[in-house]
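Here is one chain, start to finish.
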Amino acid sequence: MLITAVSLLLWLSVALAVTGLFLGYVFGLVAVPTVTEKRGWKYFLLITAMVLPLYGAIFCLANYKKTTYASNFILMGLGFAAFSGLLNYTLSILK
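Its structure:
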């Protein structure tokens, strides 16, 4: 019974982590061009954030005050990813 509950929480936290990271990625793609003031760098940073999502996440977290929504979703996704790792470890101990 406990293993089933932990397994259900694991899948729920993985789903919330993926959802949070995806929403952070989408809001980050919207926010990246508005944060940069120089016109030539806007599109370069946007294409780079599309190709390398990790760069977009780092850029949003570095400019937290200007990209609050994207940064909050990214942090939520990372928190749920860490929680799912902890639950996975707990599940491996229980089995």
